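Schema walk-through. Below, the input block comes first and the output block second. Nothing else is stored per chain. Lengths vary across the set, and this one has 416 residues.
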Amino acid sequence: MRLLHTADWHLGQTLHGIPRDHEHARFLDWLLDTLDERSVDALVVAGDVFDGQNPPIPALGLFYRFLARAKARRPGLDIVVVAGNHDSGSRLEAPSPLLRELGVHVVGGLPFGEDGAFAPERLLFPLHDETGRVAAQCVAVPYLRPADLPPLTETEDDGDPLIEGVRRVYAAAVDAGRQRRRPGEALVLTGHCYMRDGALSELSERKILGGNLHALPVDVFPEDAAYVALGHLHRAQAVGGREGVRYSGSPLPLSIDEESYPHQVVLAEIADGRLVGQEALRVPRFVAVQRVPGAGRFAPPEEALAALCALELDDGLPREAWPFVEVSVELAEPRPALREEVAAALAGRPARLVKLAVRLTGRGETLAETAPQMELADLAPEDVFQRLYRRSHDGNPDPVLLAAFQELVTAVQEGA
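--- output ---
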């Protein structure tokens, strides 16, 4: 069985106010062709389908058109989609009765029976190979919020309550999967979570489930899982030295600082109940990112403006494909007209300025004045909260307070 793992599409996202619909449409076209060319049997989307709890209509249209086209081109394709922390689980799951008839399984939140008890069997979906035989049982666990986790008893409070709660959810779900699994079938798990020692992209990823304090250990996932399809971290990576526990990474760079590493999906091959091979499939870059003078570098204004004027740009590109440009300038003193100078250097040229970063060099300024300027759009709610807290109190907020704030942010986003 060939399984394609992808995550973190963030349909509906904007980059400094510029919609990404063109890039997402091109990615989904590429993904459709890849499903065909690679004879994929199952597609797993591990969360953050959308960028927000209430996605715009064009983003919804992209998603549902993709599902319809994928099933039309590959009627036997199994599709499993789970919600991420950016998604509204209930909104994502709402059309499930209709989607199930198409062979598309969507899990927005943990299922519960009429008695109010967790019903892990409802997270299980068979994945078929090219002959129609069941090759794996997919244990489709979505993003787990603190409120989803079972409370620990007084005798179980030695460990981290959030981590232990996640462990118990996976243990129950995997046990249900083992009971349903037949000889020769694999266990495939999903998760949308922050794993211990994972490589973050700080400007575009929220610290979930309490952030670093509650990062999950890899042993949350049992050794007999053939493959664990993870979402949340945008940089593709294996976890804990286990090649079968893996973030696919996002298909697009979701912030300028993500431009420097490759974006991909993962094609995993499963046979006789185990992982026998995997391949990273590089996603083409549909809109270029130009960083002037270069990634991580700041230059004097004359050098930066000269480099900007020297950019080789394609006049034949449609506007939605014009490259994104970031300009990083180092100044000895404030230069109020700098933005106008940069705009003038790009005037009439096929490029879009998305960010102007300025760093003041030391000439008697305070540390705050010489630090690189950070735009509010670059900060996560947690960062703003911690900065405000440190203004009024000594040190950082207590981890319990921080976890409560993160739960409040999630509740507000879900109600938006």
